[in-house]
Design goal:
By secondary structure, the protein is α+β, with helices and mostly antiparallel strands. The protein is 59% helix and 24% strand.
């Protein structure tokens, strides 16, 4: 099968190829890719926050011509004097956040130039080297929590992307079999009309010979007319179903394409425990539950840290100098040391912070309860999916045998009708049984493959090749992103 975007160059399309095209072209697949790309760069941005950041900042050509306050140092008298100056400053810094402590370590180099035009004076103030550190002592350490959460969110994003691709497979499977059913109905209605037309002509001759009644002729003619109407309706239904399928696949040109249903089903031996184990190991469910619990604990930690005394340690050490020229500003440097604590202590807040702690504690307990309930429902759902799939292969084989029997019985009944040994009613019954058996077989096939891809989505495990889908994720990233 050869495929280019928007066009299928083939006379036949299998379910496997339809799924492959959908996972490359469909809007759902693209949305999953875009979402993962956003999650990927979010994680990359977080990883970058853990590395040293080099920053250059400053103010250039800040001109100030105004009247400013000036207090006499001896008398305390305030006068307003002319200020005619310009400042320029630059600071180069290397900053490193410390997730384990919550502090920030910074290595800086600073230079400031002040031009006072009224006095034709230039002043340089330099800090060639300054090492500073800021350490909150009781506050909430957001980066520490993010270091726990971000890797899990990225792992979930990978699993969600793979589950999204399996969702595309499920949707394609349902649309594929809906189109196959419509295509089969149309072909069957055309064949039925041809058979009834031929049998009606034979019956007219038998009526002339007196071997068939007028009522039988009318019944056969009515069946032929109904079949003609059914051909038109099934053609419309087939066109709509094909449009829905190929539109979802992102394919515009699909004329003369014939859908080929899977010829058989694969015997896959699975147990409920195997499926549940793979689901808990590979799917996004467990990691989502972990993230829900982490978010509730993070909320509680934030609420507790905001309660009570807030302390922050600030310190810096380095060198500085002030001079009237650039070279002197970097010679005979002087020591520069600053250290101290800042404190904030709420005296009375009407229980606001205490209330926030209580709310956070309640939400944590609520999250634990919801997780426990969700776990039970999830396990029950997985077991139900496993049970459905385990019986479906046999259902398909049974339906296939019923289809073969009904087809053979119809051919026998048709020949007997031609010889005049069965009635029109018996012929219609055999015809209806054949149609029902064929639709039942296609329906059972649809259920089998829907269950299979639903199982793949739940476990992210290929039960045919016996491998984890997550094992190939790095290859997928390199190929698509």
């Amino acid at each position: 099968m050869v495929m280019t975007y928007g066009k299928v160059h083939a006379q036949q399309l299998t379910l496997t190829n339809a799924i492959r095209i959908s996972q490359e072209n469909s809007f759902d697949a693209k949305l999953a890719q875009f979402q993962f790309t956003a999650d990927y760069w979010t994680y990359r941005s977080f990883r970058a926050e853990l590395l040293p950041a080099v920053n250059l900042s400053g103010g250039l050509m800040n001109f100030n011509h105004s009247r400013v306050e000036a207090r006499d140092a001896e008398t305390g008298k305030i006068n307003y004097v002319d200020n005619n100056s310009m400042t320029n400053n630059l600071m180069l810094s290397v900053d490193q956040q410390l997730p384990s402590l919550g502090g920030t370590l910074s290595l800086q180099s600073y230079l400031n130039r002040l031009d006072q035009f009224n006095y034709d004076l230039k002043t340089y103030n330099s800090q060639p080297l300054r090492l500073s550190y800021t350490q909150p002592l009781r506050s909430y350490n957001a980066l520490k929590w993010q270091k726990k959460i971000a890797p899990k969110e990225y792992e979930r994003a990978k699993k969600v992307y793979l589950e999204g691709m399996e969702s595309v497979a499920i949707q394609t499977t349902n649309l594929f079999f809906s189109a196959i059913t419509a295509q089969s109905n149309y072909n069957q209605d055309v064949a039925k009309l041809e058979d009834l037309t031929r049998l009606y002509d034979i019956s007219l001759k038998r009526f002339e010979l007196g071997t068939i009644t007028k009522s039988d002729i009318l019944q056969l003619e009515l069946s032929k007319l109904n079949a003609k109407v059914a051909v038109t309706n099934s053609r419309i239904q087939m066109d709509n179903s094909l449009f829905s399928l190929f539109s979802y696949m992102g394919v515009r040109d699909y004329q003369q394409v014939r859908l080929i249903p899977p010829s058989n089903v694969t015997d896959i031996t699975v147990t409920e425990n195997d499926i549940l184990s793979k689901a808990l190991e590979n799917s996004s469910h467990q990691i989502s539950q972990d993230l829900t619990l982490l978010a509730a604990k993070q909320n509680l930690a934030s609420a507790k840290s905001a309660k009570g005394i807030q302390l922050q340690l600030n310190g810096e050490i380095g060198f500085n100098q002030t001079a009237d020229n650039f070279s002197s500003a970097y010679s005979h440097l002087r020591d520069n040391e600053i250290v101290g604590l800042t404190l904030a202590m709420p005296i009375f807040d009407w229980g606001v912070k205490k209330g926030r702690v209580k709310v956070a504690q309640s939400k944590l307990e609520l999250a634990k309860t919801q997780i426990e309930r969700a776990e039970e429902e999830y396990v029950q759902n997985i077991r139900q999916q496993a049970l459905q799939f385990s019986f479906q292969a046999e259902q398909c084989r049974t339906s296939m045998r019923a289809q073969d029997i009904s087809k053979e019985r119809y051919e026998i009944t048709k020949k007997r009708f031609e010889t005049g040994t069965v009635s029109v009613t018996e012929l219609n019954t055999a015809m209806q049984e054949q149609e029902t058996a064929k639709l039942q077989y296609i329906g059972q096939l649809q259920l089998y493959w829907s269950y299979y891809y639903t199982l793949r989505k739940a476990t992210l495990y290929d039960w045919v090749d016996r491998r984890n889908l997550t094992a190939d994720f790095d290859k997928i990233v390199k190929r698509k992103f």
